[in-house]
Amino acid sequence: GQQLNQSPQSMFIQEGEDVSMNCTSSSIFNTWLWYKQDPGEGPVLLIALYKAGELTSNGRLTAQFGITRKDSFLNISASIPSDVGIYFCAGREETSGSRLTFGEGTQLTVNP
Amino acid sequence: DTGVSQNPRHKITKRGQNVTFRCDPISEHNRLYWYRQTLGQGPEFLTYFQNEAQLEKSRLLSDRFSAERPKGSFSTLEIQRTEQGDSAMYLCASSLGTAIYGYTFGSGTRLTVV
Q1: Is B25 on the interface with A (CB under 8 A)?
Q2: Across-strand partners of B28?
Q3: What is the DSSP string of B12-58?
Q4: Record: contact A105-B40, CB cut-off 8 A
Q5: Mean pLDDT of B58-82
Q6: What's residue B41's pLDDT?
Q7: Rounded distance between C-alpha atoms, residue B33 and residue B35, angstroms
Q8: How confident is the model at residue A94 (pLDDT cuts 50, 70, 90)?
Q9: Residue A94: is it exposed, middle or buried by C-beta count within 10 angstroms (0-12/13-18/19+)?
């Protein structure tokens, strides 16, 4: 099936540092979404992107929908300890209706 | 309405037993989704409903799995004759319409098959 390659798999950073993670797909997506998941909980939507080239911010988070429609990145600026968690990209193909394909996640650890 | 509710939160069962999970979506949401997440992986699509109609099923949903949404409100996911490979987090999500703005997920049911 469709695969999303998400990198890096894990990151260990100091509080205050900026973070960047990205996702690439083998297919064209018409929607890119970024979720955060805390241990024992379901994913929570952070940012949604709908157009190629779109750049959207949500507080310290910024995400972009790649021009090729096959990639997206998420930046977190000035990280804080509560940013710890697993970040997932998810994409929706034109033909997949409401079904989302998720990446494998980026585990973020922030050292105070 | 406090969001998508899933019960139980945790379930430990012996191999070969049947288990059933329940999901209560956000009340005004007409679409309901089931995903499975194994350790270290992202969620994988299983199936989804629009109202009471099951519109799509993944190939991951073997014959031992069945999902229902009888009145277009809550949904149940049953796994018959559980196997150790069924151990995972089962996530339910709901949306209004085509989920163009993403889903709202529940906290999941963690299944352990021993």
Answers
A1: no
A2: none
A3: EE-TT--EEEEEE--TT--EEEEEEE-TTS--EEEEEEETTEEEEE-
A4: yes
A5: 93
A6: 93
A7: 7
A8: confident
A9: exposed
CA–CA gap between residue B42 and residue A99 (Å, rounded): 14
Partners of residue A101 in chain B, C-beta under 8 Å: 45
CA–CA gap between residue B82 and residue B109 (Å, rounded): 15
Give the separation between CA A96 and CA A27, rounded to whole angstroms: 11
Q: Which residues are bridge partners to A19 per DSSP?
A: A76
**Mean of pLDDT over chain A:** 94
A94 Cα to chain B: minimum distance (Å) = 11
**Chain B neighbors of A95, CB-CB under 8 A:** none
- Nearest CB neighbour to A99, from listed B42, B48, B105: B48
**Token code pair at residue A36:** 């955060």
Q: Are strands A55-58 and A106-111 parallel, antiparallel or unpaired?
A: unpaired
Is A39 in the B-facing interface, judged by CB distances under 8 Å? Answer: no
